[in-house]
Amino acid sequence: YQLWALPMGLLCVQEPTEMIMHHLAVVLSSTLSGFSYLGFRYFSVYFYGLMELSSIPLAVMNAFKDNPEWIQTHPLLYLLTRAAFSFSFLYIRIYMWFFIGPRYLMHDFFFFWTIPNWGLEKSFVLMQFCFGVFLGLLQLYWAVLVIRGIVAFFCSEK
In whole angstroms, what is the distance from residue 30 CA to residue 8 CA? Predict the structure, then answer.
């Protein structure tokens, strides 16, 4: 998905810079862990699999936003899609991340610390650590935006 989203975001949709950086970081991180014997692949199921489940309602929500007439004709479906995205994002990418993300970063840091000499291995582990920190902070930033949207929805006068 990220390989498709990167050129589409750059050339067709004009996605924000942080989204392009997210796509690039995920592509590079998954490539590093997929084509190397280093790293903690037991975290891959979460980071490259389960985490992407929240992208399904996001894609449907974006389809609604790209077709405003759908929102007018199917307002309840749009509301349910937004609720499904908000819940799945906050549960999978934030709540579950607090149990998995710091543990991954700790393992990565200690592995980095114990590699005796600078070289390809140590550079690889450092890059994975940096991608992990960047993507974790980006998820927290997006969580703030999702929570603001939820608050705005419930506080709006309609």
Answer: 19
Q: Could you tell me what percent of the chain has a pLDDT over 70?
A: 97
Residue 56 corresponds to which tokens in the numbers above?
A: 């399904």
What is the pLDDT, as a whole number, of residue 148? Answer: 96
Measure CA 114 to chain center. Answer: 29
Per-position b or e across 16-37, b if 16+ CB within 10 A of its CB: eeeebebbbbbeebbebbeeee
56-82 tens-digit pLDDT: 999 999 999 999 999 999 999 999 999
Distance from C-alpha of 105 to C-alpha of 113, rounded to nearest angstrom: 12
CA distance 148 to 144: 6
C-alpha span between 84 and 56 (Å, rounded): 9
Q: Which of 67, 138, 59, 146 is nearest to 97 (CA)?
A: 138
* Residue in 35, 41, 42, 5 with CA at minimum distance from that of residue 23: 5
Amino acid letter, 63: A
